[in-house]
Write a structure and sequence with these properties.
This protein has helices spanning 2-22, 37-67, 83-117, 121-137, 143-164, 168-188. It is mainly alpha-helical. The longest helix has 35 residues, at 83-117. InterPro entries: CAAX_protease (IPR052710), Rce1/LyrA-like_dom (IPR003675). One of its GO terms (molecular function) is endopeptidase activity.
Amino acid sequence: MADWFIPSVVLVGMAAVSLAVRRQGPSSLGFHRSANPWRLVGQMAGFAIAWTLLNVALLIPVVNHLSGQRQDVSGFADLQGDVGLLLLYVCAAWVVAAFCEEVAFRGYLVTRLTDVLGHGRPSLVTAVAVSSVLFGLLHTEQGWVGVVLSAFGAAVFSVLRFRCRTLWAPILAHGFDDTIGFVWFFFFGPAYGLW
């Protein structure tokens, strides 16, 4: 857990200090009010369902077959059938994964990288790529398949941030995505893809 928890919390702390020093508010990291918050919640829940299906039907099997390995989810083995652990993991997913990771990587890191690299499209693409690779590397406990899948997911969540013009979009999508994954694991165990 410390592999991904500590760096995310450190980056969130850096974001808070950075905002205070710069005298900026959370909006500088992408926190913008949605015109229709409940619509955004519904859209991101729908996105998470579609993203999960795409992962299970295509991305996970392709990465498994190309690498000859499977994502190592043994760290979640105790979750299957344990209601208390499911509730703990879902809460942690929303607080640590959805909120902290998105603020740290899609909010703070992408924003600061574009401050350094410039605000044009090539700079934004570079910032998203760098932050996504770093995010993927935080998931080494899941093996290289987990690193690749996490990095790709991070890039997709970055697109959501800019497409929806708010950091709340990837926070919601990430939370729903992890919730779906944990509920699936609770009932059925690991999902290594449909083929």
